[in-house]
Amino acid sequence: MALANFWTKVSRNTSVAVEATSYDAWLRARVQAALEDARAGTSQFQVMQAAQALIDAKRQGQFKRCAGP
Question: For residue 57, what are the contacts with CB-CB under 8 A and spacing of at least 6?
């Protein structure tokens, strides 16, 4: 029984390692794609203005879903 338990743990650890490696590759690809993106970014000021407008609208009960950029 102990040997079966050992192999179950090995199998789980291998599965976790494979998932971690796969996630790492996916994340690195996403970061690289973002770094290579030539589109103009949105400034922090613009984001904060939009967020404040959303907060103000919710406070006044006038919230409507807005389309993203």
Answer: 63, 64
Q: Global pTM?
A: 0.43
Q: What is the DSSP string of the chain?
A: -HHHHHHHHHHHHHHHHHHHHHHHHHHHHHHHHHHH--S----HHHHHHHHHHHHHHHHTT--------
The answer for residues whose C-beta is within 8 angstroms of residue 66's C-beta and 6 or more apart is 54
- How far, in Å, are 22, 29, 31, 39, 42 from residue 36 at the CA level? 21, 11, 9, 9, 16
Asked if 69 contacts 57 with a C-beta cutoff of 8 angstroms, the reply is no
pLDDT averaged per 10 residues, the chain (length 69): 63 74 92 91 93 92 62
